[in-house]
Amino acid sequence: MAAFHPLAASRVRISPLLPAAAMAGTVGAASYVHHHRRRFCAIVATAAASPVPAAAATEFDFQAYMGERAAAVNRALDASIPADEPPAALHEAMRYALLAGGKRVRPALCLAACAVVGGREAWAMPAAAAVEMVHTMSLVHDDLPCMDDDDLRRGKPTCHVVYGEPIAVLTGDALLSLSFHHMARFDSYPPDIDVDKHPARVVRAIGELARCIGSEGLVAGQVVDLEMTGSTETVPLDRLEYIHLHKTAALLEASVVIGAILGGGSDEQIERLRKYARSIGLLFQVVDDILDVTKSSEELGKTAGKDLASDKTTYPKLLGLEKSREFAEKLLSDAREQLSGFDQEKAAPLLHLANYIAYRQN
Questions:
Q1: Is 149 in contact with 312 (CB distance < 8 Å)?
Q2: Cα distance between residue 127 and residue 131, in whole Å
Q3: Arithmetic mean of pLDDT over the chain
Q4: Alpha-carbon distances, residue 98 vs 81, 170, 176, 287 (angstroms)
Q5: What region, left, alpha or beta, does residue 194 occupy, with left being phi > 0 and alpha being psi -120 to 50 degrees?
Q6: pLDDT by residue (tens digit) across 186-209?
Q7: Strand, helix or coil for residue 106
Q8: In this entry, which stretches build a coiled coil (predicted)?
């Protein structure tokens, strides 16, 4: 299987031979000047109301931070899709899927990465909304009968159960398209951006997002996951890693990296944050696999034991629960290490997000 090339030299490796604890052309600047006095869109207005916390990591109020960002992102998402304009059925389904809840981890990562390199969160809010649109698209499509065939998501009936399969497919398509439109719009950004540098950053960020969700990222992981599901072949650990580095970690990686790009981070900062994101992305899946076999459907808000019932290969299946937990701790340690070179007050949200991913209960 080909390596996930952007970080081929720094992929998280797992070896079954080692102890589990050791495993491991831009838009012209003139156009932006022309639009410099344009009216703020709702996204920027909501972002501006949520300043970056200044408390030290030991005093950081993670619950308040996540609540503020989730509220701002939810308002941005609500403003992004018309409630009554035709085609009404499609827009209703898009809003149902997008506003059905969720922890908004990916948008929070995007905003925090922008801030840690010295940017303002308003610069990254369009991208934060976009990654949540992409994430929701992946959930809508993943739940379809031709994929995982699930009828519960975020504690509610899945999109295809409520609106039917054809509308669910089109809902995912429309959300994906909207995500890129959202990031590319002139009026998505505030007037304090660097009119000389920001257009190139937007183009770079869009390219990063597209790569991480296409045939080199999320979709690749989904394809290999489908190929392995129910297979009589014993799935090796490196193949399982490939699936989850692409299917789950890739979008978390994109969330962090595009936030850092839009915040004006240096190439060195962006790559450190990419490695951080790669670790927490794989961590997210390891924890997800653990929760699938240790929690109820009511606790998770989705069908528990689904992976076991469909004979999917998971970390607990290959390593056992205890070694899976040890591997999760190693990934968390790797993520923390990548943040050590940043201002610790600014890095507090990213540090606590990594801890949250490691110790979450649903």
A1: no
A2: 6
A3: 83
A4: 9, 14, 12, 24
A5: beta
A6: 889 899 889 999 999 999 999 999
A7: helix
A8: 318-345
Residues 112 and 349 sit within 8 Å (Cβ to Cβ): yes
63-66 long-range contacts (CB < 8 A, ≥24 apart) are: 65/108, 65/349, 65/352, 66/103, 66/104, 66/108, 66/356
Q: Distance (Å, rounded) from C-alpha 278 to C-alpha 346?
A: 20
pLDDT of residue 295: 76
Q: Which fold has domain 62-359?
A: Farnesyl Diphosphate Synthase (1.10.600)
Residue 309's pLDDT is 61
DSSP of 112-172: HHHHHTT--HHHHHHHHHHHHHHHHHHHHHHTSTTTT---EETTEE-HHHHH-HHHHHHHH
- What is the residue type of 226? L
Tokens, residue 123: 């610069």
Q: State the residue for tokens 């002139």.
A: 186
